[in-house]
Amino acid sequence: MALIRYFGQIAEATGCVEEKISVGGINLQQLLTTLNQRYNFDQYLTQVAVNHVIVGREKDLAIKDSDEIALLPAYAGG
Amino acid sequence: MKKKKMKKVFIKGSIPPQFIADSLANLQSEQTIGAHNIFLGQVRADQVDQNKVVGIDYTCYEEIANIKFDTIREEASEKYKLTSVHIHHSLGVVNAGEICLFILVSSKRRKQVYEATEYIVNRVKEEVPIFGKELLDNEAHQWKVNR
């Protein structure tokens, strides 16, 4: 089960800060599409991180059950 | 190779003035320093339609944020030949008028500290995954976005 973490306005849309999802055989784009159909957060999503590294959200990246995927909205530090 | 210890950046709630004074006092023993520059970010009571921002509730993706702060600190030190760089940011609620970001840059000479401060502030705003919920005086909220 991959760990999906949600932040800021995206966590508000999902109603949780994290959840575990079975991701066998899918890539990042497919995962994002599935999650967006469930939670409708696409308008807030600006960055995606896999295992603490920022990656392009369109990246054709295979996701493993050991991965941590973070969905990040716009930054607001300072 | 020994893993370098990351500096503690985040402070729960607002950054107290005494913390800023203490950080400066701790540098007095570093006598190659000829110039300090300080940037303080303060929560602004923006007007939002009929309401006012009374505070910001900050959250972050701490694992990436700490890596980013470390990289920014190291690259700024190298680029501007700095003697020391302090970066601190709040987490949790900071009320309007309170300090949420503290950057203290120190070097031998004046020119570098001005340029380095601007460079660091810009990179913190653009690269560090920190999120801010602006709390309004009617108990509603909106999400802050850096522009």
Task: Name the CATH class of chain A.
Answer: Alpha Beta
The tally of helices of chain B reads 3
Instruction: Please give the CATH architecture of chain B.
Output: Alpha-Beta Complex
CATH fold-level name of chain B: Aldehyde Oxidoreductase, domain 3
Q: Note the gap between the termini of chain A.
A: 35 Å
Beta-strand percentage range of chain A: 25-35%
For this structure, what is the CATH homologous superfamily of chain A?
Beta-grasp domain
Residue share in helix of chain A: 10-25%
The top-level CATH class of chain B is: Alpha Beta
Enter the CATH topology name of chain A: Ubiquitin-like (UB roll)
N-to-C SSE string of chain A, H for helix and E for strand: EHEHEEE
Oligomer: heterodimer
Strand order of the largest sheet of chain A: 2-1-5-3-4
Helix content of chain B: 25-40%
**Alpha-beta content class of chain B:** alpha+beta
Low-confidence stretches of chain A: none
Strand tally of chain A: 5
Query: Largest interface, counted with CB-CB under 8 A?
Result: A-B, 17 and 27 residues
